[in-house]
């Protein structure tokens, strides 16, 4: 098991684009999601992963991730995830010694852009780029599983 | 993906024990379970598997199964599956050219014994051993995920 420590922010300007890589298109969905855990399948080109995460919202989450055949992932997305599939393009954006991941969502939540940064410890200090706005780490509306369920959200930060 | 075709029966006598192997103890739980799919973790000694199954009850189900580290499985059972864990001993019992699996459950459903047989096609014909009673293939109460939720059941066949 890995423990995932990450913080998540709304993106408020295009300032990140200058430093971003070419991005990669991801398709991901939730094969099951209940109070204790969510199970996500993610497909990116010929690579795919099945990920079990604990159901808590916030900074630190248990995460178990396994590479799986891309064909399996495609079948799960088509057959088991129903309408709980989101597409997004993920860009890597270096900033002040850390690599941020900026997710540009497509489909029903088009227009939503979120930035995540992984931390080594819960009290790590780092510089916030000026293109991020309000933090949504603890906001359940911005969990990927919630976005996949197309729950309503407001983009005010 | 594999398609799992199996039939499940109540066990009505100890007649299977004479032909059974030594059995192996399994601990399994559901990390997530909702309308479309269930995700099961199963631990047997040093081996473990994560299995995604479509939510339908009955003869034919989609199944995606991956071997995972036993340590991961133990952590998931302890941390994510909460009270949805069942223990059972699984015996292999050859009968008339097929190998039946007889599950003797422990814990809250102690006393329950079920027999499963895997089929090559939905219309395969095979001989029923005299120690099986009523078929429960299509009875949602006898799905493993339902048993894990400790839902009530009656053993009348």
UniProtKB/TrEMBL annotation, chains A, B:
Residues 2-149 form the CYTH domain. SMART domains: CYTH. CDD domains: CYTH-like_CthTTM-like_1 (cd07891). Gene3D superfamilies: Hypothetical Protein Pfu-838710-001. PROSITE patterns: CYTH. The active site is at residue 30. PANTHER family: SLR0698 PROTEIN. This is Adenylate cyclase. It comes from Sphingobium chlorophenolicum L-1.
């Amino acid at each position: 098991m890995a423990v995932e420590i990450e913080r998540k922010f709304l993106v408020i300007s295009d300032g990140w684009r200058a430093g971003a890589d070419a991005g990669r298109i991801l398709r991901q969905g939730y094969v099951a999601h209940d109070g204790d855990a969510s199970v996500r399948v993610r497909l990116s080109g010929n690579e795919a992963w099945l990920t079990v995460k604990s159901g808590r919202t916030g900074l630190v989450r248990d995460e178990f991730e396994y590479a799986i055949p891309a064909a399996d992932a495609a079948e799960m997305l088509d057959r088991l995830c129903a309408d709980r599939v989101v597409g997004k393009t993920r860009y890597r954006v270096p900033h002040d010694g850390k690599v941020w991941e900026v997710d540009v969502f497509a489909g029903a939540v088009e227009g939503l852009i979120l930035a995540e940064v992984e931390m080594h410890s819960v009290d790590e200090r780092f510089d916030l780029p000026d293109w991020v706005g309000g933090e949504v780490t603890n906001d359940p509306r911005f969990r990927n599983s919630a976005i996949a369920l197309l729950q309503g959200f407001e983009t005010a930060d």
